[in-house]
Design brief:
Layout: E1 3-9, H1 13-24, E2 31-37, H2 44-50, E3 57-60, H3 66-76, E4 81-84, E5 90-91, H4 96-102, E6 109-116, E7 122-123, H5 131-136, E8 145-148, H6 149-155, H7 166-176, E9 181-191, H8 201-241
Amino acid sequence: MKISIITINYQNKSGLIKTCESVFSQTYSDIEFIVIDGASKDGSVDYLNTVSENIDYWISESDRGVYHAMNKGVLKSTGEYLIFMNSGDCFYDPNVIDNFIKLNPLSDIVYGLTIWADTNLYWNPPNDIKLKDTLSKVLIPHQATFYKRKCFEEVGYYKEEFSIISDWGILIELITSNYSLSKISLVICNSAPAGLSNRSMFIIHSQKLRYILKYRRNLFVYYFICLFKDYIKDFLKYKIKK
């Protein structure tokens, strides 16, 4: 089974090096490694040139933000499962992907645990995730989550209008669309504490509120249209019979 690892980077050469070395050290062989750089000027591109033979695809060009870069990585991927290990985040140990494969994953979304770098603090998600709980808070870290590629192909890609919490948003979309989730008791990631999602709690909460309101509005419109279509069908059937 091929696993696609997608790394996005912008102006974080030291973090990029840590992440790449973490990927290169994985003992599992059927890995596709994709790096999307946002036209960094800090030496990241020079580093990528020196390790390019170990990367299946990489590009450095301007983009429209984090989720545009992540979407570009998804579109280039060919693995059955995808995982996003962005610059600064690292796999917990060299056997993570190998251990994941040995568990014979079947669910559309498989998530594990994260440990925050330089601490003993774990992000241990709940075993059973409900939509109502997901609407109020982020329950699983994207850097410890494997998604089947078909999730993006069928439901859609990250919403680029949200600069921070679209990984949370797409989880809502997938749960709503009845994609299967399962938790594994495996530490996946050693996460950088200064990552993008930790830099501005005000922005995170304001964007979460916007997403909830937009999500609920769109869901209402969707079901209203479905009900209206059914009403029209029933009405026409009634007229024809009459």
